[in-house]
Design goal:
The protein is mainly alpha-helical. About 65% of the residues lie in helices and about 0% in strands. It is built from nine helices and no strands. Helix 4 packs antiparallel against helix 5, helix 4 runs parallel beside helix 7 and helix 7 packs across helix 9. The chain is globular, with a radius of gyration of 17 Å. The relative contact order is 0.16.
Amino acid sequence: MQLREPRVRPLPKSEWNDEVRELLESVRRQGRVYNIFATLAHHPKLLKRWLVFGNHLLFKSTLPARERELIILRTAWLRRSEYEWGQHVRIGKQVGLNDEELDRLKEGANTPGWNRLESALLRAVDELCEYTTISDPTWQELAVHYNTQQVLDLIFTVGQYSMLAMALNSLGVQLDEGITGFD
């Protein structure tokens, strides 16, 4: 459920102290600070520590970028996080996802067109979101393609983006300018 108004508004620049300024300047992109960061800046110590974890999953993960984005986007779809979906559609396209694949993501692992690994990834996301575990058959398929570190990154990516969906949806973080949500 996308709230029409934020429950917690992004922290205005006039209220940034030195700690917040340093944190938000480090995440500035194309001259702007996204609403997610400016909203979480209300709790700078949390933001600082969350950025380390989030940056690992987004920039230092052992997962290939395209596969990482499939995982994030499926999680965003299942968790109904319009903010995550909009941001990661943009990122997903940058790493090679196309509109047809984005539409198929909404349907899940059994939709024709996915290869075996992609189907296993989407099944893993679905299982983690519904049952908080990966089934033995899905685990066995992932083990054909992934090492232990990659499976750990997959699990923690789903967990991180599920948690983030809860925060974004509950706080009412609004889409950033130029980003579209679910269409």
